[in-house]
Amino acid sequence: MAKSESAARERVAIRAAVSAHRVPSLGRSLWQVANSFLPFLGVCAVMYWTYGAVPYWATLLAALLAGGLVVRIFIIQHDCGHGSFFRARWANTLMGSVCSLVTFTPYAAWRRQHAGHHAHWNNLDHRASGADIYSSCLTLAEYRALSPWRQRAYRAARHPLVSQLLLPPLVFLLLYRVPFDTPASWHGERRAVYLTNLGLGAVFLLLGLTLGFGATAMVQLPIIMTAAIVGVWLFSVQHRFEDTLWARRDDWDFVSASIEGSSFLKLPRVLQWFTGNIGFHHIHHLDPRIPNYRLEACHNANPILQRAPVLTLRTSLGAGSHALWDEEQGRMVRFPD
């Protein structure tokens, strides 16, 4: 009893300490908008200017930089979806909708779907709610119970070449153009998908008429493909790694799932900037209302939060091979041979 009371007090203290970092700063938010969008537009301008004038591979090198900036813009959209980037709801909605024209991600539909992830992440009894192949998994026992052909299909869908390289661009370019996983009752969110498509159509029609449709495709497609691959990898690795924590509903605890079920992805400073501090994912799950630019300060101010599993750039590259949850060992494992 004393141990459970101590744990309860610790949870309350953690939530109180984390919530102190909630308040967004208008100045810092606007500065992040400026230092994300202006460089992105500048790199795009350079790519259009060099297209056809230099070897295409040189233009593609700039697409890597632009793709990184799209990831940073997506983090702004992500914060807006949680209501953490600005204090006013209308400002978050407006900014999130503007970001969607760069990220190709319909803001309203994504926001509601993502809320499901935050309600049930790493809960083995709620894997059908707000989950996808990047934030869910089968248990080892469930996988072994599948027929051989279903095992092969499951493994093929989660092979890195498929799940990390081929599928992400298809999701952002094609699947997000239709409300494929949006319930029919979500009328506003479904409508927002088509409004996003209209906005994207207007942007690319203007670019095509001004700069040429061929140039527009050859510049913009590598950018969004790069951003999709990097963004999906970030999202996947922060929940699916060997030492993460999954639990059944009766044992699932919000604080434990945040600190132990989400990673602290410790990236080099420049990559931390491009990814909008989302590597402090354990802090984000503890309180999604914390703006991305306050996540590091929250982590540093609370030693107890620093016990989250740490992944580095090197160790994170192999984390995706752990695809099944072994309930007996209490860790994620690779597919059995």
Write the layout of secondary structure elements.
Elements: H1 2-19, H2 26-50, H3 56-81, H4 89-103, H5 107-120, E1 138-139, H6 140-145, H7 148-157, H8 160-173, H9 187-211, H10 213-237, H11 254-261, E2 264-266, H12 269-274, H13 281-286, H14 295-301, E3 310-312, H15 313-316, E4 324-326, E5 331-333
Parallel strand pairs: 1-4, 2-3
Antiparallel strand pairs: 4-5
Radius of gyration: 21 Å
Q: Describe the main β-sheet briefly.
A: 3 strands, mixed
How does the overall form come out from the CA principal axes? globular
| Helix-strand string | HHHHHEHHHHHHEHHHEHEE
Low-confidence stretches: none
Secondary structure tally, helices: 15
Helix-residue proportion:
55-70%
What would you say this structure looks like, in words?
The chain is mostly helical and 337 residues long. It has one domain. It has 15 helices and five strands. The chain has helices at 2-19, 26-50, 56-81, 89-103, 107-120, 140-145, 148-157, 160-173, 187-211, 213-237, 254-261, 269-274, 281-286, 295-301, 313-316, and strands spanning 138-139, 264-266, 310-312, 324-326, 331-333. A hairpin with a 4-residue loop joins β4 (324-326) and β5 (331-333). α5 packs across α9. The protein is globular, with a radius of gyration of 21 Å. It starts with a helix and ends with a strand.
